[in-house]
Amino acid sequence: MPFTKVNSPLIPAERIQELVQLEPAFLITLLALGTLFVYRFFLRDLSVERHRNLTLQFRNLGYHLTTATVLFSAYFSIRFISEGSQPLERLTPYLGLIALIQEAVVAIKTARIYVFQYLYFSHMRVAFPLLLVNIFSLLLTLAFFGWLASAIFNVRIAPLMATSAVFSLVLGLALQDTIGNLFAGVALQFDKPYEIGDWITVNNGNQTWTGQVHEISWRATVLHGFADEAITIPNKTMSQAQISNYAAKQRPFARSQIFRISFDISPEIVKRALLEAANQVKGIRKDIQPIVIIAETTESWISYKFVYYIENFGLQYFIADEIIEASLFQLKQRGISLASPRMTVLRDHSSA
Question: Within 13 Å of residue 273, how many CA atoms lie on the same side as its CB?
Fold first, then answer.
């Protein structure tokens, strides 16, 4: 039975009938179900937080996929039974448009999940910024709905963008800082001076921030400081600042403690005691041997510099506390105490 073609006052029914086809909808449905296949067979070892994130996205995708299926079924059902019924024939184009929009939403959310899965697979043990996924989703959304506007309403996107140059200029001036932060964030992702999870120090003029990179958003980079405070720094500031990265991807961090011991104690005994203390601290790298060197000699003591290596920059103060405690214990076991300043007073007997 041929479908009737009744034009709606607002929506061209013929174009809707040409676009609402079962084959593209079926393909998008298969791609949506394919995200579950990838998740089950390739992403079993994700962290709890990532499993939770994907589960929420699957639920959201399932809701939109079910809605799109219902809309497509209703559209084709009404087209079969609407012959001779003017109200139903006028309702069909609107229902078809809603079904197309819903299917576009399903396609965008499916593509977004695939991007998440790819990034999870390639960054299995490290985090990545959501800015990349959000930019991809925005571009895909603009492409889909631009195509729908052109295919259904014959809207010419290129002339529309050209005629809106003045509006774009005004909007760009109003959102100058926001756009600057956005492009700075994109540039930082290409340059990669830091990644999520890295410990960094940011120097910008007289201001200095130190923390672990927690998030890179459209506008700012969020750090978690040593006191678990959230430090939000605009991406534009980050792109202009001097950044020191303490990520231990290539080499561990070297840290040191100074111990001042009396001249009366043999340096060999002191060095042996400090190296023994290093074996009792779990946070120290065992594959790189700590070293103890004489850094300074004064009239009151010998300064021993105890150099050790750690991997977690954020735990350096806790590890230093354990190092000092273990070192003092080992020194005490050998009857060694820290030196105290000495002052020699000379009397002038000639004036007596």
Answer: 25
pLDDT in the model for residue 6 = 47
Q: Please indicate, yes or no, if residue 317 is contained in any of the structural domains.
A: yes
**Does residue 103 share a domain with residue 26?**
yes
Q: Which helix (H) or strand (E) holds 30?
A: helix 22-42
| pLDDT per residue as tens digits for the range 68-117 | 999 999 998 888 776 656 677 778 888 999 999 999 999 999 999 999 99
Based on the domain organization, do 238 and 266 belong to the same domain? no
- 327 belongs to a structural domain: yes
Tokens linked to 347: 């009397």
Find the Cα–Cα–Cα–Cα dihedral 186, 190, 191, 194, rounded to 10°: 80
* Pairwise CA distance, residues 66 & 54, whole Å: 18
Q: What's the number of CA atoms in the CB half-sphere (13 Å) around residue 313? A: 21
Domain that holds residue 22: 13-125
Q: Which of 29-38, 155-164, 242-251 has the highest mean pLDDT?
A: 29-38
Give the C-alpha separation, 237 to 305, whole Å. Answer: 37
Can you tell me the distance from the alpha carbon of 194 to that of 116, in angstroms, rounded to the nearest whole number?
20
pLDDT at site 99 = 93
Query: pLDDT at position 2, please?
Result: 47
Q: 225 with 258, same domain? A: no
Q: Do 214 and 318 fall within a single domain?
A: no
How open is the CA angle 20-21-25, to the nearest 5 degrees?
100
Q: Is the pLDDT of residue 180 over 90?
A: no
pLDDT at 162: 57
Residues 268 and 229 in one domain: no
In this prediction, residue 1 carries a pLDDT of 42
Identify the CATH number of the domain in which residue 186 sits: 2.30.30.520
Record the pTM: 0.61
β-sheet bridge partners, residue 211 = 200
How far apart, in whole angstroms, are the C-alpha atoms of residue 302 and residue 300?
7
Q: How many structural domains are present in the chain?
A: 3
Biggest alpha carbon distance in the chain?
Answer: 132
Residue 267 lies in a domain: yes
Q: What's the confidence (pLDDT) of residue 67? A: 96
